[in-house]
Amino acid sequence: MLDKTGIEPDVAACIAAELEKSAKYSCLNPDTLSRAAAWGLAHGRTNADAVKAAKRKLHQIYSAFLPAAARKKALKLASAVAEGEGAGRLEACMAILRLHASTAERIPHLGAIGRLIRSCLPDAGGTVLDLACGLNPFALPMLDLPADVVYLALDIDRDLALAADRFLKAFNPASICECRDVISSSQGRHADVVLMLKCMTTFERQEKGSAAWVLKSLDAGAVILSFPLASLGGKKKGMEGNYREAGQRMLADAGMRGEEVVIGNEMFFRASFERRGA
Ligand SMILES: C[S@@+](CC[C@H](N)C(=O)[O-])C[C@H]1O[C@@H](n2cnc3c(N)ncnc32)[C@H](O)[C@@H]1O
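Above: the input record for the complex with S-adenosylmethionine. Below: its predicted structure, written as tokens.
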């Protein structure tokens, strides 16, 4: 029987099972694999083509940012860093951040980004929710957030989420990093400030309209969105104008108001829902 997308569920499940067997993608959330399988089936004429198309999609939304060798190094460093302290721990965190395309270019600007986040937190405590976090939780020691801030983070990579969870708990036992597909599950959307860093286009590539849907589903005092101002290859190609327009449109559609702040190679929007007052 076909499901509502017109796809035979058994075939989709077989494609997802093939993806789960691959060394590169077995660590991903099952919801992400199912969505990629459905994409593959819609874009490949045979099942083998569907698996290839699904893998291309997973590359685009996940491994393009963190190739397998870099991920392996990050996991190794992360297990050491959870136990370390002081300057050694900071050095190891920097080494982890350098391994991911998104966090690497942010390193010289972590002080300014920390101030941006602090400007959205209450006077005491507060919660930060980092959606599609990648390796960003390892930036925590350089963000200089108050020690009582609870940091919650979600990403689709199970092993990295586990490593980041151990790391975050060393700062605050209430902090958590979980393996979750943010498009498939709307669980856990409440925080003083939600970070959606460089993930809006990644969401859109998985399901059209999902970035706006995730934004609207938030129960947050403030949201900090960001867009890259250069491609993975370093080209700028009019990205600033395009993302300014895209960011403003997404915020307006979600009923939010915000201001733009460019820090390094990244365009941030600090925004809040209009109905709660900006
Ligand atoms: C461009 S990276 C940004 C990482 C991080 N936010 C940063 O700026 O450093 C995109 C991230 O989104 C994650 N991701 C992709 N699709 C996702 C989904 N549906 N749910 C949760 N995370 C997702 C990927 O694993 C990857 O870490």
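Notes for the reader.
The pocket of S-adenosylmethionine is lined by residues 32, 61-62, 65, 102-103, 132-134, 136, 154-157, 181-183, 197-199, 202, 206 (CB under 6 Å).
The chain has two domains: 9-63, 101-276.
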